[in-house]
Amino acid sequence: AQTVTQSQPEMSVQEAETVTLSCTYDTSESNYYLFWYKQPPSRQMILVIRQEAYKQQNATENRFSVNFQKAAKSFSLKISDSQLGDTAMYFCALGSSNTGKLIFGQGTTLQVKP
Amino acid sequence: DVKVTQSSRYLVKRTGEKVFLECVQDMDHENMFWYRQDPGLGLRLIYFSYDVKMKEKGDIPEGYSVSREKKERFSLILESASTNQTSMYLCASSFILTGENTEAFFGQGTRLTVV
């Protein structure tokens, strides 16, 4: 069975500082993708960053980067130079290339403080 | 822009009613998903579909059914609504998960209250 676990229900960070959100997952498949999605108060889910499991290099998107540890099945999100607009709920997700199944974790609510 | 449209943003239904939640996507995506979102539980997969008339159970299918008669439309059906189905429901769609730009796109969500 596939699972995604986010063990930090809430986090806060000062504006301009760096924060890391944790995610662990479990899957027996070899072809899969990992995602971080952001859900602001508007409720619209927005893709932040994706990682293909077969790529060893960690994905980066501007201020967002991941630490992908495949053997440990860990996929953390680092947000640098945090901005007030980063305040949102963040979800980690695991997608199977074989079955198409896409599952999410419990979410981490991040508050960026001025 | 990719659009995933859910038929209602807010819905109030009575216990025992049959409820239809509709989702339409305009990107010719193969995959479509229904999730429910509850505080502390995150997004839980109810059903997904990888092709017309094909469906797979997710992690919490009990009390729900789905229909996909056309590629662009994926309906979630609550056969007899109960108060424990009060929740936020999110629909998503994607191409098959392959390639550099793969991602799922989401609708705006339907907040369903069963009274």
Break the fold down into its secondary structure elements and pairings.
The complex is a heterodimer of chains A (114) and B (115).
Chain A: E1 3-5, E2 10-14, E3 19-21, E4 24-26, E5 32-39, E6 46-52, E7 60-61, E8 64-69, E9 74-79, E10 88-96, E11 102-104, E12 108-113
Parallel strand pairs in A: 2-12
Antiparallel strand pairs in A: 1-4, 3-9, 5-6, 5-10, 7-8, 8-9, 10-11, 10-12
Chain B: E1 4-6, E2 10-13, E3 19-25, E4 31-38, E5 42-51, E6 54-57, E7 64-70, E8 73-78, E9 87-94, E10 105-106, E11 110-114
Parallel strand pairs in B: 2-11
Antiparallel strand pairs in B: 1-3, 3-8, 4-5, 4-9, 5-6, 7-8, 9-10, 9-11
Q: How does this model look, in words?
A:
- The complex is a heterodimer of chains A (114) and B (115).
- Chain A is 0% helix and 54% strand.
- Chain A has no helices and 12 strands.
- Chain A has strands at residues 3-5, 10-14, 19-21, 24-26, 32-39, 46-52, 60-61, 64-69, 74-79, 88-96, 102-104, 108-113.
- In chain A, β8 (64-69) and β9 form a beta hairpin.
- With 115 residues, chain B is an all-beta fold.
- Chain B is globular and about 45 Å long.
- The N and C termini of chain B lie far apart (36 Å).
- The chains are: A mainly beta (114), B mainly beta (115).
- Chain A binds chain B through residues 6, 9, 32-33, 35, 43-45, 47, 50, 52, 91, 93, 95-97, 99-107, and chain B through 30-31, 33, 35, 40-45, 48, 50, 56, 58-59, 88, 90, 92, 94, 96-98, 100, 102-104, 106, 108-109.
